[in-house]
Write a structure and sequence with these properties.
The protein is built from twelve helices and nine strands. The chain has helices at residues 2-10, 28-40, 60-71, 76-89, 100-106, 108-118, 134-142, 157-166, 188-200, 214-220, 231-240, 245-252; strands at residues 16-22, 45-49, 94-97, 122-124, 146-148, 150-151, 171-174, 205-208, 226-229.
Length: 255
């Protein structure tokens, strides 16, 4: 179970680190090298994004990565094969992140069956609300997988509780309105928001959207259980290359 793994790791670390890659960016071979580098640098779990043409939650950096992967001809079957490969090679939990159109076209039950058979632990589908997720929740439950749902700063208390009632594994808390990669203010307001999230669920909390350096992660210690790094890791890859990624990831976790 994903939640059990997270709680076990939290006995050893103050806060866990989850990274995010776009499968096929900058290439499938490079994606595998990126995963290997991140795992060797000590990340605790990882999102594998299946590229989609309209990734509405993603900012310019991740949007471009999606577009470039699709332009290079990366397909859903290739992404699923990639997920199976990394789940078999590395011991950390992997999650798919994508949009519901991918699941709908592939077949929700078929998609869940693949995840179970490939060794994935769950999925993040940011454009699927709980009210429309019955088939997805049924398939995920049947396969013993964690459906990761999302809290936001504008989510009302009753809505937080509704989302929490169907979530499993952990809840992904977005740090602010908007898309990935924009500037986030790590402030008392964020502290209060995470407190409200804590009141709504007993599940571990992940915080993403704008986490970029060790200072941000230090701020989150004791407030969130998982810090999510996505856009900033892609920026390191684009500006300094994959070889610089390991040092960047290790630096995020220094005491």
């Amino acid at each position: 179970m994903l939640e059990s793994y997270i709680r076990s790791r939290l006995k050893e670390k103050k806060i866990l680190l989850m990274t995010h890659i776009v499968i096929g960016y900058p290439s499938l071979d490079a994606s595998l090298a990126i995963v290997r580098t991140m795992v060797e640098a000590g990340v605790d779990l990882m999102e594998l994004q299946i590229p989609f043409s309209e990734p509405i939650a993603d900012g310019p950096v991740i949007l471009k990565a999606n577009q470039d992967a699709l332009a290079d001809g990366v397909t859903v079957p290739q992404c699923l094969e990639f997920g199976q490969t990394v789940a078999s090679q590395f011991s950390i939990p992997f999650l798919y992140m994508t949009y519901y159109n991918i699941l709908f076209k592939y077949g929700v039950d078929r998609f869940a069956d693949h995840m179970r058979d490939a060794g994935l632990k769950g999925a993040i589908v940011p454009d699927l609300p709980p009210e429309e997720a019955d088939d997805y929740l049924s398939a995920m439950g049947r396969c013993g997988l964690s459906p990761i749902f999302i809290f936001s700063p504008t989510t009302k208390t009753a809505r937080l509780q509704t989302i929490a009632s169907v979530a499993d594994g952990f809840v992904y808390c977005v740090a602010r309105k908007g898309v990935t990669g924009d500037q986030t203010a790590f402030s008392r307001q964020l502290d209060e928001y995470l407190g409200a999230c804590r009141q709504a669920t007993d599940l571990p909390l992940a915080l993403g959207f704008g986490v970029k350096d060790r200072d941000d992660i230090k701020f989150l210690e004791g407030k969130a259980d998982i810090a999510v790094i996505g856009t900033q890791a892609l920026r390191v890859i684009e500006t300094q290359g994959i070889d610089a990624l390991g040092d960047f990831i290790r630096g995020l976790q220094r005491p």
